[in-house]
Structure formats: structure tokens, C-alpha cells
């Protein structure tokens, strides 16, 4: 399998430079369960897009501190790519910003969470899970870092997860689109470091809740298996 990772992360801070970039994070995430898969990374937030999607068996769209409402030229370009890829039947997985930008590209709506920031480890409830995610526990743990979320789903989308204050924490459209509001690619060390980095930028109670939530690890590898099975199911029998 050959997957294109479309990186939307706009953080070029000194903190970001000390940690693996999102292309590397998602490559490690997928290689934790499918080490032989080929991953190609595109920095779409810098205007680097694939010339042709035909060589790829699927797309991954990453998270970002950017808002999909920001006035960046690459965001409408990414939305147009999503519309074209989805229309062509290309399998797409989106996480956090990816989850949101896919929704808006396909007719949904994203807004601010009325309860404010969701940050740290959260308990996610699976709903109407598709076959590729059938082995996930009914409730599983992922890392969160968002203040915006999907308010209206795209047409034909089915909700497959909900989380704290987030009724549309994951959705799918048939067997070609799969999303999560969360960050399955993050590991414990990174979210702990990010929590400390954002002291003073986020409200104190958000930081304290995040610290308290990090006692137990997230189910990153189990979730990676669902993403791998999603792409395999879309590809059909070998």
C-alpha cells in the first residue's frame, strides 16, 4: 500500500523543532501495524500538493493548530483536492483538522466548542463501528487538542464516535471516508510535553485536567490497526 500524508500542521516553533514532525508521526503510526507500507509526505500547509493522486491507495490528512476558518490559500486548495479525491472514490482518513476540513469540504460545518478546549487524554465512545474498527473496545482512549469541532456532518455521513462535549467525534461515509476529532498519532511523551509547553497559553484548568488525564496511555496502536484495515477494505481483495 502507498499512502499520501497531507501535513496541515502550521507549527514551526522551537518546540515543534524539538519533536518529530507530523509526517514522521503518522508514518510511525502506520508502520506500527503495517511496517512494509510506503508513505509519501506532502507539506500542504506550505503549498506542496501531490501532482497526481493515482499512485496512492489512500490519503491521510493531519491535524493542525490552524483553524479551517483561517485565511490561508492552501485551505481552499486542500478542500478542492478532498472533493476531487472523494468524488473519484479515493479512501481518505482525517484526524483533528483533517476531520474538520473534510467535513467542511463536503458540505458540513465546523464551529467553536461551547465548552472550550478539550485537551489531554479523553475517553471516546464508539458508535455503530464499521467492520474495520470492530476490534476497538466500546470505549477507548485517544489524545485530544482542539477547541473547534464539527457541528454539522456532511451528507450521508454516519457518526461512529463521540467524546467529551463532542457529539461528532468520528464519522464515516461508506467505506471511503474515515475520521476522528482526536490525535491517534501522538504518543504520551509528546502530549505531556505539549501540555507543559502551553502553560500560560491555555487556561490553567485545561492544563491541570490534561496533566491529570495522562495517567494511562492512549490506544494509539489499536486505532492504527483500524486505519490500516480501512485502507485495506477500500482496496478490496488482494
A few lines on this structure:
The chain is of the alpha/beta class.
Question: Can you offer a commentary on this structure?
Answer:
The protein is of the alpha/beta class. It has one domain (2-235): Rossmann fold (3-Layer(aba) Sandwich), CATH 3.40.50.880. The protein is 31% helix and 27% strand. The strands form 2 sheets. It has a 9-stranded mixed β-sheet, with helices on both faces. Helix 3 (74-87) crosses helix 4. It is globular. The relative contact order is 0.17. The model has no long low-confidence stretch (mean pLDDT 95).
CATH first level: Alpha Beta
Average per-residue pLDDT, rounded, comes to: 95
The CATH topology assignment is Rossmann fold
Strand segment tally = 11
Shape: globular
Strand content: 25-35%
Enumerate the strands of the largest sheet in spatial order, edge to edge or round the barrel.
2-1-3-4-11-10-9-6-7
**Distance between the amino and carboxyl termini:** 11 Å
Give the name of the CATH architecture. 3-Layer(aba) Sandwich
- Class by alpha and beta content: alpha/beta
| CATH-defined superfamily | Class I glutamine amidotransferase (GATase) domain
The low-confidence parts are: none
Instruction: Kindly state the percentage of residues in helix.
Output: 25-40%
Q: Helical stretch count?
A: 7
Radius of gyration: 16 Å
Order of helices and strands: EHHEEHEHEEEEEEEHHH
Tell me the domain tally: 1
Described by strand count, sense and barrel closure, the largest sheet is: 9 strands, mixed
Amino acid at each position: 500500500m502507498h499512502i499520501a500524508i497531507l501535513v496541515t500542521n502550521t507549527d514551526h516553533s522551537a518546540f515543534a523543532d524539538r519533536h518529530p514532525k507530523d509526517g514522521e508521526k503518522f508514518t510511525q503510526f502506520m508502520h506500527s501495524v503495517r511496517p512494509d507500507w510506503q508513505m509519501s509526505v506532502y507539506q500542504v500547509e506550505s503549498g506542496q500538493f501531490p501532482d497526481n493522486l493515482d499512485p496512492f491507495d489512500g490519503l491521510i490528512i493531519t491535524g493542525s493548530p490552524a483553524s479551517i476558518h483561517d485565511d490561508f490559500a492552501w485551505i481552499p486548495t486542500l478542500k478542492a483536492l478532498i472533493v476531487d479525491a472523494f468524488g473519484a472514490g479515493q479512501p481518505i482518513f482525517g484526524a483533528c483538522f483533517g476531520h474538520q476540513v473534510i467535513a467542511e469540504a463536503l458540505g458540513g460545518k465546523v464551529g467553536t466548542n461551547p465548552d472550550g478546549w478539550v485537551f489531554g487524554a479523553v475517553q471516546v465512545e464508539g458508535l455503530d463501528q464499521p467492520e474495520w474498527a470492530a476490534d476497538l473496545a466500546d470505549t477507548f482512549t485517544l489524545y485530544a487538542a482542539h477547541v473547534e469541532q464539527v457541528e454539522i456532518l456532511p451528507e450521508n455521513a454516519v457518526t461512529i464516535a463521540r467524546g467529551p462535549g463532542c457529539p461528532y467525534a468520528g464519522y464515516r461515509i461508506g467505506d471511503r471516508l474515515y475520521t476522528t476529532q482526536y490525535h491517534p498519532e501522538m504518543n504520551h511523551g509528546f502530549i505531556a510535553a505539549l501540555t507543559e509547553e502551553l502553560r500560560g497559553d491555555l487556561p490553567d484548568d485545561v492544563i491541570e485536567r490534561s496533566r491529570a488525564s495522562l495517567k494511562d496511555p492512549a490506544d494509539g496502536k489499536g486505532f492504527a490497526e483500524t486505519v490500516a484495515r480501512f485502507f485495506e477494505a477500500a482496496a478490496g481483495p488482494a
